[in-house]
Amino acid sequence: MENTGDTALCCGAYAITGMGEPGKDFRNRRLKQAKDTGADILSLYCPGCQLVLAPGGAKISLEVESILTLLGRSLGIQ
């Protein structure tokens, strides 16, 4: 992704709740960065980020999953 590590961006949750549309633009920018990597799944730890970045309100479709869910699947836990 374009912004990672020290330059990582927030998901935009606070911007969405505080500013509305500008926050949604910020969220969509972050989702586009993820999609541009060629990923099919965006794996997150933070439940707030999962809600903000999950499909529904965003224009870019990526499967959004908790990293703990993916870990469970890899261990055969459904």
Describe the structure.
The protein is mostly helical. It has one domain. The protein is built from 4 helices and 2 strands, in the order H-H-E-H-E-H. It has helices at 13-19, 21-35, 47-53, 67-74, and strands at residues 41-44, 63-66. Strands 1-2 form a two-stranded parallel sheet. Helix 3 links the parallel strand 1 (41-44) and strand 2 (63-66). The mean pLDDT is 83.
Give the topology, please.
Elements lengths: L12 H7 L1 H15 L5 E4 L2 H7 L9 E4 H8 L4
Parallel strand pairs: 1-2
Helix pairs in contact: 1-2
Distance between the termini: 29 Å
The domain tally reads 1
Instruction: Return Rg in Å.
Output: 13 Å
Order of helices and strands: HHEHEH
Strand content: 5-15%
> What spatial form do the alpha-carbon principal axes imply?
globular
Regions with pLDDT < 50 over 5+ consecutive residues? Answer: none
Helix content: 40-55%
Q: Which structural class is indicated by helix and strand composition?
A: mainly alpha
How many β-strand stretches? 2
Q: Give the rounded overall mean pLDDT.
A: 83
Strands of the biggest beta sheet: in what spatial order?
A: 1-2
The tally of helices reads 4
Biggest β-sheet, characterized?
2 strands, parallel
What are the key terms here?
single chain, 78 residues, two-stranded parallel sheet, 47% helix, globular
